[in-house]
Specification:
Length: 71
């Protein structure tokens, strides 16, 4: 479906490639979605800065659950 968004505001994402000085697998949070072109405004944890990133450079963040089961 044209215009379909892969991620929503608040989703945790990571880079799948080096991008604008950020390393592969740099993680961040989507803070804004641009309705045209598949672009996202992402605040990256490593710098605290926001970058506009195309969806082809993003994938869901592979993070452990917040409350892992105890031993």
């Amino acid at each position: 479906m044209p215009g379909a968004q892969r991620f929503g505001v608040g989703d945790r994402v990571q880079l799948n490639t080096w991008y604008l000085g950020l390393p592969t697998q740099a993680r961040g949070t989507v803070v804004h979605i641009f309705l045209i072109g598949g672009f996202y405004d992402v605040r990256f944890d490593v710098t605290g800065q926001r970058r506009i990133v195309h969806q082809r450079h993003l994938e869901p963040a592979d993070e452990p659950p917040n409350n892992p089961a105890g031993p």
